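writing this on my phone so excuse typos. first protein, seq and then structure
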Amino acid sequence: MVALDTLLKNLRLYFANLPAFSDVKFVCAFPGTVKASPLTRPVVSFSVKTMEEKDVPPVYSQVDEAAGEVPVLLYNHTVAVRLRVDVHVPQTGNGISCYEIYTRLSRHLMDMQFNIPVVGVGCQDLRYDRDMGAFSLYSYVDLYQTSIVS
């Protein structure tokens, strides 16, 4: 079982302690976090969008049976997690700043070594949120792992 709370906390701590992100505040599950309104500095929030862990039909290595090779079980269990990463920038900035922060984040995320490997990152549309007084960019991180479970 994936410890989602630990994963989110570790992400937050990792980025919060990087000098390259000293201009950004990192939080877990932004909607439940007390925030300034309007925002006074960029904020990135991490949460879980979806998580699926399941047993799958066994997948074996390809072998040459004529040579007497024996197939090896590669995996019979998968975990797929989509993390939601919201980038919020104060209205005193501009929406382009959301993309700039997202680009920096995605570079780091693709190079990070998690217990569950990062297989992709992406983003959707940029919007302005009047209630928050900020530009907001929804982005995501996809994690995927295979394993053997007996």
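second protein below, same order as before
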Amino acid sequence: MSKATQLQEALDHAEANVQHMATWSQRQLAERLEVVHIQSQLAEEKKDTAALELLEVWRSQLIAARLYKAEHHVPDTLSDIKQAIAEIETIQNHADDRQEALGEEPEVSEPSRPSQKQRPKSEPAESQLGLF
């Protein structure tokens, strides 16, 4: 995508971009602002005016997002990984509650590892370590 197209999209969707970025954490916003600053310095050294215009728009949108976040008390969104972990924990808690309601102890399964006796004789444990 050309810089002119990116610039036009950034300007056309400025309000939506600001509202989306406002859900990022302050740390993420600060890091992104720092990256834009470094990219601006590099674009200035290369005298790339199109990139400088685009980076200035991104910079202003990041600053606007920080202000919008502070003024409207916008909470951070959970990352996809943190959200998936929270969902798994919720499901596990519900399963534990159901088992307790039925009078059963929750099962805690431990991962099983084959013992020395269960390993095939043709592959000793030391030779397997050499593969890594």
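The mean pLDDT is 82. thats all i got for now
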